[in-house]
Every structure is written in structure tokens, then in C-alpha cells.
Specification:
174 residues; 3-stranded parallel β-sheet; single chain; 8 helices; alpha/beta
Amino acid sequence: MFPTIRSISTAQKAIRACTTLSIPIFATTQSASRLGPLCAELDLPASTPLFDKTAFSMLIPEMRFALATATTSSFQVAIVGIETHICVTQTALDLLAEGHKVYVLADGVSSCHEGEVGVALRRLAREGVVVTTSEGWLYECMGDAAIDEFKAISGLVKETRQSTKEAVQTLCKM
């Protein structure tokens, strides 16, 4: 996968930030019996809904139900994951079609083929998805340094600065 280590690091950062900011987290696996379980390094909170799927979009019936019970009718979602040009793209487009604001964290996605990531991110941006970095998204979520969680999130950003820098530099080469 290209670049798996960096996308895992970004996903870990997003998970920690979501926990701090009380943002719901949802996860899926793709045919886990054939392709394997979710990456253990992600260290998802035990309460995270995890659904296995065969569809390429993660917007399967179980996920729709979980989202409906956890959020309002229109919501914002940030996506990290593998196979940017397949699962990430189809999920983002499905959510966008239903009227949700969709962010794809560019430093939190990957693909088996390096060139697929840039092509998919450019397409998603043209379609109306907000393609941004994890750091940009975190500050957008906070909106103001006066919130109680600011110190924890800014500490997380400092802690992950090097991995974010490497991921963004890799993206800039695409």
C-alpha cells in the first residue's frame, strides 16, 4: 500500500482527536474473512461500531442506521482509509449525494498503486468533497483556541508534526 505507514499514523491521530473532541467514530472492514481484520495499530476505542462489508462504499445499511442514531439528518464526516480510488471515493460520493459535508484527509488515505491516490483526490475535490490535511481538519473542527480541548489537540498536532510533514511532502509529489 502507498503510503500505509503514514496513513496509519494519520488515522491514529484522527482517532485520538475524535475521542478528545467527542466526535463519533465508525469503522468498516472489507470482507474481513478473506482480506483480514482491521489494522490493530489503529487502537480504536472499544465502543467504535465496526461493520464488515462487501460493498466498496462503507455506506451500507448497518452504517446508515448507526449514523442515523448518532447524528442529525445532515452531518459532516471525515474519511481516512485505504484504496482511495475505490472505497474512499465511493463512500465520499455516496455521503455527498445524500447532502453531507465530506472531508477526505489526504494524509490519511492510501492505495496499492501510488498514482491512484492523486487521481482520486483530484476527482473528489472536483465533485465537491473537501480534500484537506489532518491538521487543517483538526483546526477547522476546533474553530477557536478558546475551547477546552485546544491544549490537548495542539499537543497532538505537535506530537505528530514529523509524520504529518512527511505525509504532506509525499502528497505534494503526486
